[in-house]
Write a structure and sequence with these properties.
CATH class of the largest domain in chain A: Alpha Beta
Strand order of the largest sheet of chain A: 3-2-1-4-5
Radius of gyration of chain A: 20 Å
Number of domains of chain A: 2
Largest interface: A-B, 60 and 36 residues
Oligomer: heterodimer
Number of helices of chain B: 6
Distance between the termini of chain A: 33 Å
CATH architecture of the largest domain in chain A: 2-Layer Sandwich
Largest sheet of chain A: 5 strands, mixed
Number of strands of chain B: 9
Order of helices and strands of chain B: EEEHEEHHEEEEHHH
Order of helices and strands of chain A: EEEHEHEHEEEHHEEHHEHEH
Radius of gyration of chain B: 18 Å
Number of domains of chain B: 2
Structural class of chain A: alpha/beta
């Protein structure tokens, strides 16, 4: 059984074919690049997606080396994400499903990040740390759904990096650039560290980091301090959640999972609590079609499909509102 | 229990290892006492780690003192040592409210949560928020509730901060007592509103829902 997955929630238009054994046969992507100093412009990103869509779909099928008649379903990320971008992917998916007469499978983008992380690392019942432009959340599986144990109360970790980068004219996503700058830092600057229970708050840290920069602090030092403080805050929130839930695995997934400082801090947190530490492979940390195709396989196995007239985009679809019938355990 | 001077009430031992601190039960001049030691974390750089542990230790002692003045039961503090980030305080045996709620009748569940509501109501009325309000941070000794763990507590009369306390509590109930959480939280709100007033209670509840929505999904870019 093969499933084709389409991802178009934000800057990436990605298409992938995955088998029911979890083999990723192809992973084609084309990423919209915003001009330095600006963020994602939703309409421009959507225009980019519609221009590349046909080519990326063909590329994914060609790389997988299969005929379309082999496909058992088309999985589509209906949300959460940017409305205009979501609609491009949804239109392509509806058309393919209708033309090929195969099931259309609705997938939540955040669940996709979790499932691709679990697939590529072998984590079975982890405390999930989902970090991306759209999410900063700590979740564990219980009673048929992913429950949120901690999250950001304002902006996400990805937002913190991107909004900071925009002020200094770096292109977004800016995590890798900021990480490079931290290596040239010569000292730590004290910045606001805000942890509330298992939650974090980054908006004050963003304001203070920009204020330090304007008052003449070295860019490298501000980047280093901002990264240290923000990642330590999340590490502490994860440690609290880990102590609270007693989980024996930690899975870091999502675009910001590629950050080295965050990875090493979470590895240390897991070690302190005798938990195994898993990090999604770098190439599947950012948005991709494989995370949607694989989640599509899992959903298709339990018959979770939708119809074309029901497949509306859901820009604010929440992670904890999704029923997960394919995972066992998690009894309350 | 009577003890002679010089006789050890208990043998020192580690009774709990939390995310932030190690809790030891030990002897304090012939009485059992708790030693709460905030441990150093290797995932934080030294400058940040020391500042956080020191500030939270002195802050927690201060908060517990202020909360007691509002008539909310907390363990009494005997000694503060900032150099080692350590507090020594009264031993309250427990169990935690989280544990106790599993084994008691529905009516007793309601009573406990309503009582917790009045305690948090008194704190909020007095301008103090807990900052880490879960049912694991409430001890129940013979039906009397003690609030603990004030390291993230703060002076605040902001609806936002009060809403965060309610949000954390609601989430803790949901994640550990799923199926019962609505009953628990409603009973809590009854006690809470009896202190802060129905109108203020509703307003803070509305703020709680707003904060919940905000963090769930933040539009990119």
């Amino acid at each position: 059984m093969h499933c084709l997955g389409i991802e178009s929630t934000a800057h990436t238009f990605g298409v992938s074919v995955v088998t029911d054994k979890g083999v990723i046969l192809s992973d084609a992507r084309d990423v919209y690049a915003s001009a330095p100093g600006t963020g994602i412009h939703p309409r421009e990103a959507a225009e980019h997606h519609s221009e590349v869509a046909a080519r990326v779909v063909c590329q994914a099928l060609a790389e997988a080396g299969i005929r379309v008649s082999k496909l058992a379903g088309v999985a589509i990320a209906l949300g959460p994400g940017l409305g205009p971008c979501l609609r491009v992917g949804a239109t392509v998916a509806r058309a393919l499903s209708s033309y090929l007469r195969i099931p259309l499978i609705p997938v939540n983008h955040a669940i996709g990040h979790i499932e691709i992380g679990a697939l590529t690392t072998g984590a079975s019942d982890p405390l999930v740390v989902l970090v991306s432009g759209g999410h900063t959340a700590i979740a564990a599986f219980s009673g048929g759904r992913w429950r949120i144990f901690g999250e950001t109360e304002d902006i996400t970790l990805g937002n913190l990096f991107d909004m900071f980068a925009r002020e200094i004219d770096l292109p977004s996503p800016a995590g890798p650039e900021i990480e490079k700058l931290t290596e040239k830092s010569s000292g730590f600057i004290s910045l606001p560290y805000v942890v509330k229970g298992n939650d974090v708050s980054y908006s004050g840290l963003l304001t203070a980091s920009l204020a330090e920069l304007r008052s003449g602090a070295r860019l490298e030092d501000v980047c280093y301090s901002m990264q240290e403080v923000s990642c330590s805050m999340l590490a502490e929130a994860v440690e609290r959640s880990l102590a609270y839930t007693g989980k024996k695995e930690v899975l870091l997934t999502g675009g910001v999972a590629a950050n080295k400082a965050l990875k090493s801090k979470l590895r240390e947190v897991a070690r302190l609590h005798d938990a195994a530490s898993y990090v999604v492979e770098d190439r599947y940390s950012g948005d991709n079609g494989a995370q949607i195709a694989w989640t599509g396989i899992l959903a298709l196995r339990v018959g979770l499909v939708t119809t074309i007239d029901q497949a509306r985009v859901r820009p604010k679809w929440r992670l904890e509102d999704v029923d997960i019938p394919w995972r066992d355990g998690g009894a309350t | 229990m009577s003890t002679f001077r010089g006789e050890m009430a208990v043998q020192p031992r580690l009774i709990y290892k939390g995310a932030e601190a190690e809790i030891y039960l030990e002897d304090w001049f012939g009485q059992p006492a708790i030693r709460k030691h905030r441990v150093s974390k290797a995932y934080r750089i030294t400058e940040l780690d020391e500042a956080i542990r020191r500030t939270r230790t002195s802050h927690e002692a201060n908060m517990m003192h202020e909360v007691r003045k509002l008539g909310v039961p907390v363990p009494t503090i005997h000694h503060i040592d900032l150099e080692s980030s350590t507090l020594i305080m009264d031993y309250v045996e427990g169990p935690t409210l989280k544990e106790e709620l599993y084994g008691i009748s529905t009516q007793a569940k309601r009573d406990r949560c309503r009582m917790l509501g009045t305690l948090l109501g008194k704190m909020h009325e007095g301008g103090i928020v807990h900052g880490d309000m879960t049912i694991s941070n409430v001890l129940s000794e013979h039906g009397k509730l003690f609030m603990i763990d004030f390291g993230l507590g703060d002076f605040s009369s902001e609806t936002e901060d009060k809403g965060v306390d309610l949000l954390l509590l609601n989430r803790a109930m949901k994640s550990t007592h799923y199926g019962f959480h609505t009953l628990l939280f409603n009973a809590f709100m009854k006690g809470y509103s009896s202190i802060v007033g129905r109108k203020a209670g509703k307003e803070i509840l509305r703020k709680m829902r707003e904060i919940e929505q905000r963090g769930r999904y933040f539009e990119r870019g």
